[in-house]
Amino acid sequence: MSHLIAPSILAADFGNLQSEVEMVNQSKAQWFHIDIMDGVFVPNISFGFPVLKQIQKHAKKPLDVHLMIVNPDQFIQKFADHGAEILTVHIEACDHLHRTVQAIHSAGMKAGVALNPHTNISLLEDIIADIDLVCLMSVNPGFGGQKFIENTYNKVKKLKKLISDSNSNALIEIDGGVNAETAPKLLEAGADVLVAGSYVFGAKDPVVTMSNLVEL
Ligand code: DX5
Ligand code: ZN
What we know:
By secondary structure, the protein is α/β, with parallel strands linked by helices. It has one domain: TIM Barrel (Alpha-Beta Barrel). The chain is built from eight helices and eight strands; from the N terminus they run E-H-E-H-E-H-E-H-E-E-H-E-H-E-H-H. It has helices at 17-26, 49-58, 76-81, 97-106, 152-165, 182-189, 198-201, 206-214; strands spanning 4-7, 32-37, 63-68, 84-90, 110-115, 133-137, 171-175, 193-196. The protein has an eight-stranded parallel β-sheet. Strand 6, helix 5 (152-165) and strand 7 form a beta-alpha-beta unit. The longest helix has 14 residues, at 152-165. It is globular. Bound molecules: D-xylitol-5-phosphate (DX5) and zinc ion.
C-alpha cells in the first residue's frame, strides 16, 4: 500500500474553516486528521462537536478522529454520528481497551489506538490483531508545531515487526513533527499514514505541500 497523508485541522485557520476544509478536499491528501483535546488527558483544549459538525458538513474525505480525552467510551456513538470513519483512543486513557475497541467497531467505525512517546510498543501485543490503526505520537500530545522525537523511527520498526508477526492489518500512523525531513525517513521505517499540521497549514502553498507529501 502506498502511504496516506492526513492534514491536521488543528493547524488550520478556524476563522475560515469552510475554505480550509475545501482546500483539503481539493488537494491530494487522503484523510482529515481531527484532534480532540479535553484539558485533562492533555494540557490543552481544542474543539468539540459544534466545530466537528461543520467539518463533517464540508469534508469529502474520511475523518480520522484522534481523541486525547479521558473516558472516551461515553462519546463513541456521538463521534460516529459526527462522521468519524476512524476513531482513535489513547492506550493511556483506557482501562478496558478491548471493550472500547469493540464499542468503536459496533458503532461502525475503524478503531485506532494511540501511544504517547514513552509508551512501549509491547503493550499492544494482545490487542494488535483487533485494531485497524496504531497512532504513534512523535511529540507529546497537546500541541501542534513541536519538535519531532527521534526515537519514533525505532518504534515504527518495532511496531512493523509486531504487526507482521501477528497477522494484523493495522496501519501505522505517525502524529507530530512531520515535515520534509522526517516524512521520508518515517516512510522508509514503515509508516503508512503521516499526520501533518503546522508543516501543511503554515506553508506558503498548502496544496503543493500536501501533494509533495503524497508523492514521496
Ligand atoms: C498533537 C496532535 C497533532 C498535531 C500535529 O497533540 O495530535 O495531530 O496537530 O501537529 P504538527 O504536525 O504541527 O506537529
Ligand atoms: Zn493528532
